[in-house]
Amino acid sequence: MASTFTRMDESTAEQWAVIGVETMQNQPRVAEAFLDMLRRLEGVTDGFATNQLVHGLQTATLAEKAGADEELVFAALVHDVGKIVSVFNHPGIAAEMIRPYVREEVYHVIRVHQDFQGRHYYHHFGQDPNARDQYKGEPWYDLAARFADEWDQVAFDPDAETYPLEHFEPLVRRLTARPRPA
What we know:
By secondary structure, the chain is mainly alpha-helical. It is built from 9 helices and no strands. The chain has helices at residues 13-25, 28-40, 52-65, 70-78, 90-98, 104-111, 113-117, 141-152, 165-176.
């Protein structure tokens, strides 16, 4: 049953109950959207030795092999999906996309990953390679440093072990099936 209101301020609790049920029934489309964006990253290379899909797969592979939990592996996989929209603010785009599905510290790791990764390349652009220092004291600082230093910045090797997207599909579907409680 479709809602009949044309203005939210004229809606009823019953109409919103229907919308809530239908939204959760359609939640599998979120996983499909993430997987589609990941596949589209195959066409984004921008001068790197691997395309951005391989980069995400390698980052997630490294995280998984290091024993990271599912939320962090998922975040590692999709951390650059924002590049489909904009390279320059891709961390914020990806962080907001994963926010309903991961704990707060993982959200922050992805939100700031470029500044943490910048330690390894910002100087080439005349930027501050210590940009991560602005986050010192944050409870997620060490996790963000580990993400950037051990998994993200080393994941551009065409010859490195890389689990295929199919390996991660069940994880994407499981984590996006239901948003975390607020």
